[in-house]
Backbone:
DNA sequence: TCCTTGACTCAGA
DNA sequence: CTCTGAGCCAAGG
């Protein structure tokens, strides 16, 4: 098991359900999603820490239409590039939601991260600072 | 059968 | 900041 968890069906469903709750204009990471879900039965913590994020990525690669897949980025706050050009559409969708990318193609997770403080976001939206 | 390829992350150098 | 290795497996060419 590495690219896929023991019970792929169940794990994927959990990933999709969770991502469904990420609000418009916000992003989360593969690692954060994995952490919130926690290791499936029979998978020890160490292994899950190592592969959970990848399993989430695999799940996202197969998500249903209704899932806001564009709101999941990597731990650096960058869009993971893959073959097929999906990353280009992802960037467009995120910008359309009001998410800004800095000069190095990175999203400020303190600002747009799922769990970031509202205060920070408001101030930034107001004067463009931070 | 062998080799490549995955929507990841973190620690080290 | 960049680049590697480790973690370690299934599917397809």
Residues:
């Amino acid at each position: 098991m590495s690219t896929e968890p023991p019970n792929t069906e169940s794990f994927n469903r959990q990933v999709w359900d969770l991502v469904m709750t990420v609000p418009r204009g916000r992003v989360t990471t593969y690692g954060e999603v994995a952490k919130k879900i926690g290791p499936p039965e029979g998978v020890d913590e160490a292994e899950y820490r190592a592969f959970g994020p990848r399993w989430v990525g695999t799940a996202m690669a197969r998500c249903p239409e209704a899932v806001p897949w564009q709101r999941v980025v990597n731990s650096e706050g960058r869009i993971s590039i893959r073959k097929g050009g999906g990353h280009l559409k992802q960037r467009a969708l995120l910008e359309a939601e009001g998410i800004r990318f800095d000069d190095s193609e990175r999203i400020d997770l303190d600002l747009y991260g799922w769990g970031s403080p509202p205060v920070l976001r408001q101030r930034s939206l107001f004067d463009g600072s931070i």
About this structure: DSSP finds six helices and two strands in chain A. Residues 1-4, 46-47, 49-51, 54 of chain A lie near DNA strand C (CB under 10 Å from a C1'). Strands of chain A lie at 28-29, 72-73.
